[in-house]
Design a protein that fits this description.
Order of helices and strands of chain B: HHHHHH
Radius of gyration of chain A: 21 Å
Number of strands of chain A: 0
Shape of chain A: elongated
Largest interface: A-B, 35 and 43 residues
Largest sheet of chain A: none
Radius of gyration of chain B: 19 Å
Strand content of chain A: under 5%
Number of helices of chain A: 2
Largest sheet of chain B: none
Helix content of chain A: over 70%
Oligomer: heterodimer
Distance between the termini of chain A: 54 Å
Number of strands of chain B: 0
Structural class of chain A: mainly alpha
């Protein structure tokens, strides 16, 4: 059982590495999807920060 | 096992094919830069509010403006995520989302940062707003260069 798992990992891990390399664009730059993931996460955090501040002040939330 | 390896290979190819448009990468980076600068701006404003350097009223005005900018950025990101290449119609679509956002930021910069009286706070916020303006102008230039109207 363990040998099977190790065999699978041996095959899968290099492929995952290739995906990571592929996601990084040429010249080591990041691809569009990585930047968009970063942007989305940050925009969502920003909106939550605003909602939290408005809530703490008893202000009308932004709809 | 063959199926697994084939799936991974196809995924690698899709990632390569789907993410090589240089303009789309630049636009995505500009959106990411905008989001980061917005985070800095909001954190600065809220910290200044806690210190009593910006009134609740002014803080609320700025944060509601920030909300609109963030929402525009999220919308632009959603459109960009579905693309593999920027074309004239897709650039026009994203430009129509970002144009009012850019106008709002430009207005905030030119109107003396919304009535903030503390000089240091005003300067910090102004600098961050200019960084946001620069990132959005970069996005606008890319969209215009790819046929956006």
């Amino acid at each position: 059982m363990l040998a099977n798992i190790l065999a699978i990992l041996n095959l899968v891990l290099p492929a995952i590495g290739s995906i990571v390399v592929a996601i990084r664009g040429k010249n080591g730059g990041m691809s569009a999807v990585v930047y968009l993931d970063e942007a989305d996460a940050q925009f969502a955090a920003n909106q939550q920060q605003i909602a939290d501040w408005l809530s703490s002040k008893g202000k009308t939330p932004v709809s | 096992m063959k199926f697994l390896l084939t799936s991974i290979l196809v995924l690698v190819l899709l990632v390569n094919v789907g993410c090589t448009d240089a303009n789309l990468v630049k636009l995505s980076q500009a959106l990411s830069d905008t989001a980061t600068a917005m985070g800095t701006l909001q954190t600065t404003v809220i910290a200044a509010n806690k210190q009593g350097l910006i009134s609740d009223t002014n803080t609320e005005t700025i944060l509601r403006l920030c909300f609109k900018i963030n929402a525009g950025g999220q919308e632009a990101s959603k459109v960009a995520r579905a693309l593999t290449k920027l074309t004239a119609p897709s650039s026009s679509s994203i430009l129509s989302i970002l144009t009012p956002v850019i106008a709002a930021v430009n207005d905030a910069v030119t109107t003396g940062v919304l009535g903030i009286t503390d000089a240091n706070t005003k300067n910090t916020i102004y600098t961050t707003l200019v960084a946001i303006q620069t990132a959005l102008n970069t996005a606008q230039a890319i969209l215009a260069a790819t046929g956006g109207k």
